[in-house]
Amino acid sequence: MKRIIPIFLCLVWINPILLKAQTLGGNAVFNFLNQPISAKQASLGGLNISSIGKDLGMAFYNPALLRDNMHGGVNAGFYSFAQGLQQYGLNTAFHVEKYKSNLSLGVQYLDYGNLTQTDAAGNILGTFQPKDYVIQLGFSKQYHERWWYGVNAKFIGSNYGQYQSNGIGFDVGLTYHDEESELQASILVKNMGAQLKTYDGLQPKEELPFDLQMGITKRLAKAPFQFSLTAHHLHRWNILYSDSTFNQLEAIDPNKGNSGA
Q1: Residue 258 confidence (pLDDT)
Q2: Which domain holds residue 112?
Q3: CA geometry: angle at 137 spanning 195 and 144, to 5°?
């Protein structure tokens, strides 16, 4: 554990420096990476990183939740949103006894349906079918009795007709579980990485939706309930949603987080 904690601290501080300041308000690329693929994850607000169980979809989000008892399991999810947008998710896991570790393989795919393609003057040129996807490989291993750590490596792809982009990303998670007190806690460094190819090949590369999250879950001793609390964007003190048009209308200074008047 003395080696693991310094690694986490380095990841937290070095990643934002390498990728410049992380932003909010839809200014990052591949924001679909934050979309949950598990019904359980979605029901818990889409951000829970500390609820330990047998749901492979939770391990897709936080690799430190990947466990031995998930060996051979399969998780499949389908979501249908407004205007024909559909999301598919599929992942499975394997326990490697020789190395006392676990591996997972998963896919997330978003289909935005058929859209009308036009030129700058509004002339209809035809239709196109935009899509986003990620292919992810996960790893986890137990450290002593109560600690687990894990890593996700993912290839990210996006296709919007003639505009295509891809990138690579990584998630690193650390989980603590005390079975006697039913206390579960996690820290997750999410979406480290970079855009490899921009959509038009000309614009500067954009940042991934990096996030530093911490969560805690406590199960009640004499009731079939547990409570969770998750904090996100802990690497930023100012999480004001920055919209340039709104800022101008309301005289808001995004650097101060309040009215510039």
Answers
A1: 54
A2: 4-259
A3: 120
Amino acid at 188: L
**Which amino acid, residue 164?**
Q
**Which pTM value belongs to this model?**
0.83
Q: What is the pLDDT of residue 19?
A: 44
CB 62 within 8 A of CB 186: yes
pLDDT tens string 11-43? 555 454 444 444 454 568 999 999 999 889 999
Angle (nearest 5°) at CA 135 between 91 and 210? 105
Q: How many domains does the chain have?
A: 1
Query: What single letter denotes the amino acid at residue 189?
Result: V
